[in-house]
């Protein structure tokens, strides 16, 4: 009988990013790419495309794209935080824990029209508990103009 794979903490943290970037189809639709990914901040990058535009006359992002990018980057950071203090776990335990992670509440404030060619969605962890994590998110364009901010509350345990 073969024993189950044990993931170390760095392997778990990397697996969280892999799941978000490679196994969630909607993130591919948005064209999200992983930028910064550490204990201080998480960033996701994406480019404007005609199918992401909400107002063709003004060539600005659809509000749903903005909120989805903010929710995703906040969720990624919250998921990362759920595994930060674990030294190791089995692949089965990782999958069980990961399957329970989800958005409880999302608040988005649209500050400016989503004009730009490249965008950066970033998240900072405000609180990480055993059951719930709270993140603050921002969306900037390539000129570092703040487009929107958000606060997300995520179930992590």
Account of the protein in words:
This protein is an alpha+beta fold and 157 residues long. It has one domain: Roll (Thiol Ester Dehydrase, Chain A). The chain is built from four helices and ten strands, in the order βααββββαβαββββ.
Cα separation of the termini: 31 Å
CATH class, please? Alpha Beta
What would you call the structural class?
Answer: alpha+beta
Number of domains: 1
- Rg measurement, Å: 16 Å
The CATH architecture would be Roll
Tally of DSSP helical segments: 4
Q: How would a textbook summarize the main sheet?
A: 6 strands, antiparallel
The oligomeric state is: single chain
Helix-strand layout with pairing:
Elements lengths: L5 E3 H14 L2 H6 L2 E5 L4 E6 L5 E3 L4 E2 L1 H21 L4 E3 H9 L2 E9 L7 E11 L3 E10 L4 E10 L2
Antiparallel strand pairs: 1-6, 2-3, 3-8, 4-5, 7-10, 8-9, 9-10
Key features of this structure:
single chain; 157 residues; alpha+beta; two-stranded antiparallel sheet
Question: In brief, what are we looking at here?
Answer:
This protein is of the alpha+beta class and 157 residues long. It contains 4 helices and 10 strands. It has a single domain (6-155), classed as Hotdog Thioesterase (Thiol Ester Dehydrase, Chain A), CATH 3.10.129.
């Amino acid at each position: 009988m073969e024993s189950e794979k044990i993931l170390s903490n760095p392997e778990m943290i990397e697996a969280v990013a892999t799941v978000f970037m490679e196994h969630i189809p909607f993130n591919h639709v948005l064209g999200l790419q992983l930028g910064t990914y550490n204990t201080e901040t998480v960033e996701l990058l994406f480019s404007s495309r005609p199918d992401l535009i909400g107002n063709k006359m003004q060539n600005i992002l659809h509000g749903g794209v903005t909120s989805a990018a903010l929710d995703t980057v906040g969720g990624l950071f919250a998921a990362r935080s759920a595994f930060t203090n674990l030294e190791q776990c089995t692949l089965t335990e990782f999958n069980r824990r990961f399957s329970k992670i989800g958005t409880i509440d999302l608040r988005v404030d649209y500050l400016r029209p989503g004009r730009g060619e490249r965008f950066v969605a970033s998240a900072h962890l405000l609180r990480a508990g055993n059951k719930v994590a709270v993140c603050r998110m921002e969306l900037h364009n390539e000129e570092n103009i703040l487009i929107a901010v958000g606060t997300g509350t995520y179930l992590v345990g």
